[in-house]
Amino acid sequence: MKHVRVRKKRNWEEWYQYFSLVMLFSAIIFGILVVTICLAGVMLWLFIKVGWIAQLETLDPLRVVLLMALFSIIISALLTFFTVKIPLKPVNHIVNDLKRLASGDFTTRLKYGKPISNHPYFKAIVVNFNKMAEELGNTEMLRSDFINNFSHEFKTPIVSIAGFAKLLRHGNLTPEQQDEYLRIIEEESMRLSYMATNVLNLTRIENQSILTDITEYNLSEQIRSCFLILENKWSVKNLELDMDFGEFNITANEELLKQVWINLLDNAIKFTPEFGLVRIEIMQDENQLSVIVSNSGDEIPADKIDKIFNKFYQADESHKSQGNGVGLAVVKKIVDLHKGNVSVQSQNGCTSFTVVLPNINHIELT
User: Fold this and answer.
1) Least packed by Cβ within 10 Å: which of 70, 132, 287, 290?
2) d(Cα 87, Cα 92) in Å, to the nearest integer?
3) What is the pTM of this model?
4) pLDDT by residue (tens digit) across 201-260?
5) How far is residue 222's CA from residue 193's CA, in Å, rounded to a whole number?
6) What does each C-alpha distance from 288 to 24, 73, 169 come to in angstroms?
7) What are φ and ψ of residue 123, in 5° steps?
């Protein structure tokens, strides 16, 4: 019921803005019409005064009407020619700024002078246009950063693979060296595969609007298996793992949620210092199930928390850690598909991601 009231209010505001715009342009047209009639009358009076036209009393009424019409047409044409740019100026302003925006100038900002800037309709146009330009600029910046970061992230393992493959091809290596080089090649290949898979998953998920393939399965077992998948990452850092949770079942898309846990756990392991702690908590009540993934380590700056779920965004601007800013965007999209919510808190040396998923009865499948 509350949602309906908000919707009506929005429609009323849009109607009021439209009506006020119509009245504004009607007033301009009416003003031109009044000025035209007045000037036509003045011209007719002057022509009679100077003797160019016989006295008004001697003229045929039809001739007077025709003269007035002729003068009105001439004057209105002149007025329209010289004043049409006034009502069209705001429109031309929008068109010109749209052209700049379309050409890639995302610094473009729409701005009107008074009094038109005070009109509610043009206020809405200015706010929405500038917001669109700002979002496009941010997206373009993130896209450029993503290309640079992604190129760097891809180049590093490729160079490693090529270098160690060349050493193996030249031979003269001990069995221990061969095993070590092969292990590095395998790890770097898996790293490439992981990055490519994340990008492909994001592309696929973004085009998905309906949740399908829903089954009931053991969530606890799934999370434990995700930990095993990432064993080579947390074991090398000697991390302490806290997985003290019971057995929980969930009804959801098993494959999609697996991506959520892998991305969150990989993110936690990545930013946990050596000998740090990674903790998983699972809680469930009648309406929802919550999974909390926490890790010790540096906190996420407060001004970056709202951006970390954006595509291609990386809070670590130094790029010391591996990643391409796609994993958390995948998490957000999958959780949204499940009609759930994901949030993050980072304080007192601990960062926690909380995923809240509703019971299947609360998910709209159509």
Assistant:
1) 287
2) 9
3) 0.53
4) 777 776 677 788 889 999 999 999 998 888 888 888 889 888 888 899 999 999 889 989
5) 21
6) 52, 73, 56
7) -60, -45
